[in-house]
């Protein structure tokens, strides 16, 4: 079943206010898929341009309204795509972000992009819907525990994200950069080398979640330059030799000087 979630207040109906051809959110398969959200006053629909902090706070408050109207909540978010206008603002975003997801945070990928209408922040969110029957367990939200390795690269960081979240039939992995699983330190090298390390680590993390590369349904690849597309692609083929998953590749400003970052969604 596919249900449109209407805007809980008039100001968040961007289709009516600004002609954006989108629904605020869609509920399907036990999940709620929200449209990318920017800082809008929920009562007046006025754009609230400001700092990364003020825009992020307004977006989270609006997401809270939208998700609660759909029977969900901020603590049931399973995946976030956080888009900021400049990667230099990464730590500023994190400080505001932690206030709204203080524990068991969702999987997350952050990218530096050009955000619409001159905004500094946009958040694209997927959340688990509430189970409609007490016996239904398919909508449970579970943080995947890490194994003894540092394949996810988060053990030595204090970032507001979880390596992976399982919700219903799916596992959502945060964007992964090239990390040495033995030391937890970044792996520097070519796009090809980083791609191979990321996908090796991804296979291990998926296994910890009871899944595998063969069960991946969607992949997002960010590379620092689209001129490196074939260098990434040649290694990528080795990990998905038959019936590869759906995929989106784009050039983006990456955090921490990495050349590649990869996220995925897989069947549990």
Q: How does this model look, in words?
A:
The chain starts with a strand and ends with a strand. It is built from five helices and twelve strands. It is α+β, with helices and mostly antiparallel strands. The protein has two domains: 2-128, 60s Ribosomal Protein L30, Chain: A (2-Layer Sandwich), CATH 3.30.1330.40; 142-267, 2-Layer Sandwich (60s Ribosomal Protein L30, Chain: A). Strand 8 and strand 9 form a beta hairpin. Strands 1-2-3-6-4-5 form a six-stranded mixed β-sheet, covered by helices on one side.
CATH superfamily of the largest domain: RutC-like
Low-confidence stretches: 133-138
Q: How can the largest sheet be summarized?
A: 6 strands, mixed
Strand segment tally = 12
List the helices and strands and how they pair.
Elements (H helix, E strand, L loop, with lengths): L1 E4 L8 H5 L6 E4 L2 E4 L17 H18 L7 E8 L5 H11 L6 E6 L8 E8 L12 E3 L20 E4 L2 E7 L14 H18 L7 E8 L5 H11 L6 E6 L8 E8 L1
Parallel strand pairs: 4-5, 10-11
Antiparallel strand pairs: 1-2, 2-3, 3-6, 4-6, 7-8, 8-9, 9-12, 10-12
Helix pairs in contact: 2-3, 4-5
